[in-house]
Write a structure and sequence with these properties.
By secondary structure, the chain is mainly α. It has one domain. It has six helices and three strands; from the N terminus they run H-H-H-E-E-E-H-H-H. Strands 1-2-3 form a three-stranded mixed sheet, covered by helices on one side. Helix 1 packs antiparallel against helix 6, helix 4 packs parallel to helix 6 and helix 5 packs across helix 6. The longest helix has 47 residues. The two termini are 22 Å apart.
Length: 188
Amino acid sequence: MIAGKYNNGTVVLRKLDSDIGVMKGLIREFQIKDAASKGREDARRERREERRRLSGGRTLAVPESVVSKLPPEEFIGPKRPRIYWKGADVMIVDAPVPDYRGSSRVVVSPQASLISYYFRRLRKCRFQSVNWFSKLEFYGRLAESLNECSYEQLLDPLFIRSVIFDTALSIFIDWRSRVIEPIGNQAT
């Protein structure tokens, strides 16, 4: 993403500054949504506790006729991994892929649907500096940052979002510093 022969450095800087602003706006948008959803979660929790109190702790029992129709566990077989995102040399799955020999970076997480949602949300922003060439570095670095997290960390949705968004912002800032260096060298 360095200003090359065909790119004017100031144009690239403007694009990166625009992308940094969009990324900061996206982070603010999700912080506001978190504050609003916290109130909804508290209300939902209160309703659930009220229903539990009114039911006297009773639970629904599954009839034996339904249980007898379920196949034995040995016939179900192992869980097949579901691919939630595949693109830009990154693959996001919910379980390890046996004997995978592809070139994509693989992110395995039980929160794969959430991670793919954030990847799609970033793609929907249509950043000016993320093009057909730079998308491999952009999404690849996002995948690497997720792979550096522990399994327990990947269970926390807020942590996942902060890792993805903070990494995306740092990528834009890194690209910006790489563009400024060559421009500064040309002036001397």
